[in-house]
Amino acid sequence: MKDFLISPSILSADCARLGEDTANMLASGGDMVHFDVMDNHYVPNLTMGPMVCKALRNYGITAPIDVHLMVKPVDRIIPDFAKAGATYITVHPETSEHLDRTLQIIKDYGCKAGVAFNPATSLSYLDYVIDKIDLILLMSVNPGFGHQSFIRSNLSKLCQARKLIDISGNYIHLAIDGGVKVDNLSEIADAGANMFVVGSAIFNTKNYQKVINTMRKILDQITHS
């Protein structure tokens, strides 16, 4: 799969002008919006809810929104985000009593389903649900906060996930989230990722387009290699 997607995480955006900042990022070349939801229970932080997702849609954001739910329990809030305009809804296996049922709820509400794996979470869950998902998200930091460093053991995990996707024959995006920057993008892509969740490396700069263009050039070299 060579359709590389840059999915900036608005967790690092300017919350005081979130609609404007998100639109600026997309106009600068971002492919989609990564929307981190944390509950101060499953992870030690508290972030945005469905009203913020709806507000972005009302502002005029039409790009795909991947709502990454780091909340427990998770089933109850899925309909709220689906109605608020989520395109993808991604959940962690640990947040669901019955992962298969949770994924079906996402599908029933017309969204694409994703499963996220923390650094120490086994990919073995995929043995039972890979035919039901559209996105696999590997966390390359421990979830809860931005500005963390990339955990390099996830490169081998990426390779494993890519093999499982290829064996399945299904069209599934493989995303990486945490510590993704210009200087490690190439090796992450080489390991099998095609979707890159990037936070501070974009939003903490003055020129989003410059960073995204640099990333795009790196990915184009891999595409044509």
Describe the structure.
It is a single chain. The chain is of the alpha/beta class and 225 residues long. The protein has a single domain, classed as TIM Barrel (Alpha-Beta Barrel). The chain has an 8-stranded parallel sheet with strand order 1-8-7-6-5-4-3-2. Helix 4 links the parallel strand 4 and strand 5. The two termini are 13 Å apart.
CATH class bucket: Alpha Beta
**If you compute it from the alpha carbons, what radius of gyration comes out, rounded to the nearest whole angstrom?**
16 Å
Number of self-contained structural domains: 1
Helix percentage range? 25-40%
Offer a quick outline of the entry.
This protein has 225 residues and is an alpha/beta fold. The chain contains nine helices and eight strands. The chain has one domain: TIM Barrel, CATH 3.20.20.
Question: What keyword list fits this structure?
Answer:
alpha/beta; 36% helix; TIM Barrel; 225 residues; eight-stranded parallel beta sheet
Describe the SSE topology.
Elements: E1 5-8, H1 18-27, E2 33-38, H2 50-59, E3 65-70, H3 78-84, E4 88-91, H4 99-108, E5 112-117, H5 126-129, E6 135-139, H6 154-168, E7 173-177, H7 185-190, E8 195-198, H8 200-203, H9 208-223
Parallel strand pairs: 1-8, 2-3, 3-4, 4-5, 5-6, 6-7, 7-8
Helix pairs in contact: 2-3
